[in-house]
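Entry 12.
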Amino acid sequence: MRTQKLFWLTGMLMAVLCSACNRNQTYQHDQGFVFGTIYNITYQSIDNLQTEIEAELQKVDDELSMFNEHSTVACLNRGEAVDTGAMFNEVYQLARKINIDTDGAFDITVAPLVNAWGFGFKHEQMPTPEQVDSLLKIRHQMDFSAIAKGYGCDVVARFLEQRGITNYMVEIGGEVVLRGQSPRQVDWRIGVSKPVADSLTVEGDLQTVLMMTDRAMATSGNYRNFYEKDGHRYAHTIDPRTGYPVQHNILSATVLADDCATADAYATSFMVLGMEGAKAVLARHPELEAYLIYTDTQNVLQVWYSPTLADKIVE
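Predicted 3D structure (tokens):
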């Protein structure tokens, strides 16, 4: 009788432990809309935290959004006096650091030039050289679009870490932060899109698939955003140093870094710097990795990537 009771208690204990184990393996999958794009977040947790996650993303929007008229950056761009918060200051300082490191290739004050060329793309009225020169001298507006999505990923990642969650994937508009393991109990598989010059393409083919963890990744590209006039292709990426759209052979730049804001900013910088400029930056920063897709002199698609990425490429 005593033995039977012992077996029964042991069985109950194992059942409870297995039940707890199964609950601990639960992964939440949240999707929504933020910063003008879609986000997808997968994380190991018994509880669904989407409401809290969206509250964190709203904090980023309140500081950095160009489209939120009450945001810190919108107020500053209108010349209003406003106290800047911790998030704004953190991103501003990072943007300033990368601006210096890339010799001006990354510049959050490029907004007036982007707007001028964007208007030209839509109405086929390109800004004149005189207008470009004028805008180069008068740049008082800030635009964090090339770093905000990456920073938003970092903010969500920090929130999850604070909740004791160590297995997660945060993706906002293609920018990604990865930690721990996926629901399959292996590293995360992340695709790099094949450059397709079709602005209507939503889900294109993948150029490659990377398998990795404990890393952040961001991609910038010109292959969908361009305008052709008189036989010339004008990219939507504006070189802040010249005031003109970049014209070189890089179609997309994917950058891996320890945090996503850094990856996001350098991906944009590489689109401005071109192949040799990007490689020069990478030579100075061994903590960064890159996967660059470009066209050769015969207009054939080619790929260059950091040697350390070789063991992460699975397809």
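Annotation: Helices lie at 2-24, 50-64, 72-77, 86-101, 111-123, 129-137, 145-162, 260-284. The first strand starts at residue 27 and ends at 34.
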